[in-house]
Amino acid sequence: MVNHIKDVLKYGKDMLSKNDISTREARMLLALAMNISSNDLIKYTECTDGEYKIYQSYIERRCSGEPYAYIVGKKEFMKLDFLVNKNVLIPREDTEILVLEAIKRCPTKVLDMCTGSGCIAISLAKYINGAEVDAADISSPALTVAKKNAKLNDVSVKFIKSDLFENVNDKYDMIVSNPPYIRKADLKELQKEVKQEPKKALDGGEDGLVFYDRILHDAKKHLKKNGVILFEIGYDQAKDVTALAKKYNYKKVKKIKDLSNNDRVIIVEG
Ligand code: GLN
Questions:
Q1: Ligand 1: centre distance to CA 95 (Å)
Q2: Which atom of ligand 1 is nearest to the CA of 194?
Q3: From the alpha carbon of 178, which atom of ligand 1 is closest?
Q4: If you measure from the C-alpha of residue 50 to the centroid of ligand 1, how many angstroms do you get, rounded to a whole number?
């Protein structure tokens, strides 16, 4: 059977649009199935039966709500490539704000708590000359992904399997974290794509603040003099996280907004 690219793409676009997914992905997924770049697709008029079959499976997965990044198996963050799978949250553009703030402060020894794919820790190791970067996570499968990402990006990061600070022994001049922060009740309202991401990486307990509370409490022992904590927060959590920082007697708290003018990062001075 001859599979004309234009018919194959029409099938993909129809399926995607029926499921309210951008039809732009039809070309991207076909290029992936054919193992070529999207730009090169224009050079082809047909694809093989095998490629068409793979394409159909990609389209079906995407239509069932699987995020595009999981199908391609990678996501760009801070202009670097990161491998992703169902064991890690997909890096978000919003999180680049946290990384940029951290880079500005040029820390020499940093801990990324709840590292997931490792995107924050690895970006810091890549962009801050000479920084010593440690990264902790409770999830072994996530750490497996993070280690591959460090290798892929040619940086050295020390990964620690740990329930928050349980196995962390050092002191740092900066602790960064994008912990799970979605309120339990809001988990069921998430987009269907987000629902396929690891719940453990999203669930911030009843009030969404469980991890900020625990990290702020335990970080005291792990901050050097004049050390800082940088948190990513949900758009409506600045007040609550600031109150927690006050409760634990941190000196100063500063908020940073994202490009949509939402509070996105909290900087806590130790
Ligand atoms: N920003 C993510 C979302 O909105 C949540 C990330 C997190 O819980 N750390 O889905």
A1: 9
A2: 10
A3: 9
A4: 37
Does ligand 1 lie within 6 Å of residue 202's CB atom? yes
CA of 164 to the centre of ligand 1 (A): 18
Q: For residue range 196-212, what is the model confidence (pLDDT) as tens digits?
A: 999 999 999 999 999 99
- Are residues 48 and 180 located together in one domain of the fold? no
Percent of the chain scored above 90 by pLDDT?
99
In terms of C-beta distances under 8 Å and separation of at least 24 residues, what long-range contacts does 243-250 make, across chains too? 244/209, 244/212, 244/213, 244/216, 245/216, 247/216, 248/216, 248/217, 248/220, 250/216
Provide mean pLDDT across the span 239-253.
97
| Ligand 1 center–CA 198 separation, angstroms | 11
Specify the pLDDT at position 229.
Answer: 98
Residue in the structure block whose two tokens are 């070529």: 36
| Domain co-membership, 254 together with 193 | yes
**Do 53 and 179 share a structural domain?**
no
For residue 15, the enclosing domain spans 3-64
Number of domains within the chain: 2
182: DSSP letter: B
**How far apart (Å, rounded) are the C-alpha atoms in residues 261 and 263?**
7
- Rounded to an integer, what distance in angstroms lies between the CA atom of residue 154 and that of residue 190? 34
- Is the CB of residue 91 below 6 angstroms from any atom belonging to ligand 1? no
| 30 plus 118 within the same structural domain | no
71 domain-assigned: no
pLDDT, tens digit, for every residue of 53-83? 999 999 999 999 999 999 999 999 999 999 9
CATH of the domain at 55: 1.10.8
The pTM for the full model equals 0.96
